[in-house]
Specification:
26% helix; DNA Primase, Chain A; single chain
């Protein structure tokens, strides 16, 4: 599994070399000329020795800087059964199931060379909203051309660990209603993964506004409650 994960990291971060128990990559945040991003695959952590960028989940690197296709490969690897925890399969303690957010089955990414009538119209709509190609890549924007969310631009949101916690689905045609979002709580920090908390942050109403504004967070409405996760943070 380690070899497969290193291949994914190589696709996302570029060439690397081994130094003892760690692997050194170029840091995607500070873009230093030398490979100073240290990755410990056994512990699943990383740290840049130039800008101090660090994390406790290697998957967050893939999620933030790689295409969604590479992250799905990573999730498949993380989803493998660990036989060392086999005894836990027989625990009888009742656990409350968590509601897991997943992208629609018909979701198609626009980060690659999307073809077809629907993809073309989705890109035309994004251009009309001043969404650039770089924005599409950074925000992992896609669309749906079938099913419940057909004819809608889909903007996923990831928490600070790189896990999907919400998505916005906005019609790019005559769909009604214009927005059709997942039936889960909106009390999240939208795309916390991409927020630079050390820089000034702009609060806006919607996701499209946040994309254009830069280091911004959409509050998914017009009122920010004091009890919300965003206000508390």
């Amino acid at each position: 599994m380690e070899r497969e994960k290193l291949e994914i990291l190589g696709e996302v971060l570029g060439r690397y070399y081994r130094s003892g128990q760690e692997y050194l990559f170029s840091c995607p945040k500070c873009n230093h000329g030398k490979r100073k991003l240290s990755v410990n695959s056994d512990k699943g952590v990383f740290k840049c020795w130039i800008c101090d960028y660090s994390g406790l989940k290697l998957g967050s690197l893939v999620k933030r800087y790689g295409p969604y296709s590479e992250y799905t490969k990573w999730m498949d690897l993380d989803g493998s059964v660990d036989i060392t925890t086999f005894d836990n399969l027989f625990e009888t303690e009742e656990k409350i199931p968590e509601i897991r957010v997943t992208l629609p089955e018909s979701f198609k990414t626009l980060t690659g060379r999307s073809k077809g009538f629907s993809a073309r119209h989705a890109n035309i709509y994004l251009k009309s909203r001043n969404i650039s190609r770089d924005d599409v890549l950074r925000w992992k924007i896609g669309f749906c051309d079938d099913g419940e969310y057909a004819g809608r631009i889909c903007i996923p949101s990831f928490d600070d660990s790189g896990d999907l916690n919400y998505f916005i689905a906005r019609g790019y045609g005559n769909q009604y209603p214009k927005y059709k979002n997942p039936p889960v709580s909106r009390d999240i920090i939208f795309n916390d993964l991409y927020v630079d908390w050390e820089e000034p942050i702009v609060l806006v109403e919607g996701a499209f506004d946040a994309i254009v504004a830069g280091n911004a967070i959409p509050i998914l409405g017009s009122v920010l409650k004091e009890t919300s996760k965003l206000f508390q943070k």
